[in-house]
Write a structure and sequence with these properties.
Elements lengths: L15 H15 L3 H14 L4 H11 L5 H9 L8 H15 L6 H10 L4 H14 L3 H14 L4 H13 L3 H14 L4 H14 L2 H13 L5 H28 L3 H6 L1 E8 L12 E2 L1 H15 E14 L3 E12 L5 E13 L2 E9 L1 H8 L2
Parallel strand pairs: 1-6
Antiparallel strand pairs: 1-2, 3-4, 4-5, 5-6
């Protein structure tokens, strides 16, 4: 649904059809529907071939670089005598672009928001240019928040703020804005695509894939491929993390093993294993003292071998392996078949379940 006319900068066209198509293009472009936005701009220019702001929008948002010179020529050939102040400001910037394709819009955007301090679209132009043209995230953040003060219901600004915070590593703030975008625009594919990227950055590739598929269901053509890529990373990333734990254990680097565990990890030894007397071990310290310290105290050596890792659904990895150990005192050898089920989230192990030949372990423990 189009925003109210008060959202937009004033334009000089006398064609209601052209104006409505321009507003539709702006709404579509804000939500990254560029192909559909181009159709609306074409419709606007068909209704009014001298609609300057439609050219200005196409040049700054939609047109590839090779088409901009011709569009600039056509836009600047329009008689500016009846232009609004916003169009005169934008025309000045387009004149600079014609002289120098690398011209910066900084001054034009400052002039635009000064001339229209209560018009949200002025700040949308300003924060987009600050972010993508000037590469100035500080200015972009300021303009975006000023727009938000004027129009808290404008979903795309939350998308920009989400990316700004994510780029600075403020992931909780980023999620707040992406959540808000989804709440404000529950049928917008870009809202779900952005949240998918957020979860990919967090390393939660399963949730990322789910969000990408929701974007696909709302029409984003690239989303299924992104979902598949996230699932590939899920398998690869989870397997790599579990392998790194085994590598650290083999090297005797227990601090690195513990660093891979979530602060609230739930560790379960197999039923029938003597170490299961402390189940569940919650937290790395409990695992260190209840499992690893006891393995060290009871064995001359305790190794794992023949490890094969199998990615599974729901952020899990199944490891099949064998224990190679020797009990202290008795010298009894252990060559036991085992399996470990690892559960992971955000690059940490959140749960561990051991399965093992407990009879062999019990026999080896006898005096």
């Amino acid at each position: 649904m189009l925003r109210s006319q008060e959202f937009y900068l004033p334009v000089s066209t006398l064609s209601d059809e052209a104006r409505t198509a321009y507003y539709a293009a702006s709404e579509l472009g804000s939500n990254v529907h560029f192909t559909a936005a181009q159709r609306e701009i074409d419709r606007a220019l068909e209704a009014d071939p001298d609609f300057f702001m439609a050219y200005a929008y196409a040049i700054q948002v939609l047109a590839p670089d090779e088409k901009k010179p011709k569009l600039l020529q056509r836009a600047l050939a329009i008689d500016p005598s009846g232009f609004t102040e916003s169009e005169r400001i934008m025309r000045g910037y387009l004149q600079e672009m014609q002289r120098d394709s690398t011209a910066r819009p900084t001054a034009a955007m400052k002039a635009l928001v000064k001339a229209y301090p209560n018009t949200p679209e002025a700040y949308e132009w300003a924060y987009l240019h600050a972010l993508y043209t000037d590469k100035d995230p500080v200015a972009a953040l300021d303009y975006a928040h000023r727009l938000l003060d004027l129009d808290p219901g404008f979903g795309p600004v939350h998308n920009t703020l989400g990316y700004l915070h994510m780029g600075e590593g403020r992931m909780d703030k980023a999620k707040e804005h992406f959540d808000r975008y989804i709440k404000l625009a529950p049928e917008e594919s870009n809202a779900f695509d952005s949240m998918g990227e957020y979860y990919a950055n967090r390393g939660d590739y399963l949730q990322s894939a789910r969000l990408y598929m929701q974007a696909a269901a709302r029409g984003m053509e690239a989303a299924p491929e992104r979902a598949l890529a996230a699932l590939d990373k899920l398998e690869t990333g989870n397997v790599a993390l579990v392998q790194s734990v085994y590598d650290a254990f083999a090297a005797g680097d227990i601090p690195t093993v513990l660093s891979a565990l979530d602060a609230q990890v739930v560790w379960q030894e197999a039923e029938g294993n003597a170490l299961a007397d402390g189940n569940p071990y919650v937290g790395p310290d409990a695992v260190l003292n209840g499992v690893f310290a006891r393995l060290g105290a009871e064995h001359d050596y305790f190794r794992v071998k023949d490890i094969e890792l199998h990615p599974m659904a729901h952020n899990r990895v199944l490891a099949t392996l064998r224990y190679d150990a020797r009990r202290k005192g008795s010298g009894k050898l252990i060559d036991a078949q085992a399996a470990h089920l690892w559960t992971l989230r955000d690059g940490k192990v959140t749960a561990f379940q051991q399965y093992v030949d407990t009879r062999q372990l019990a026999e080896a423990a006898k005096k």
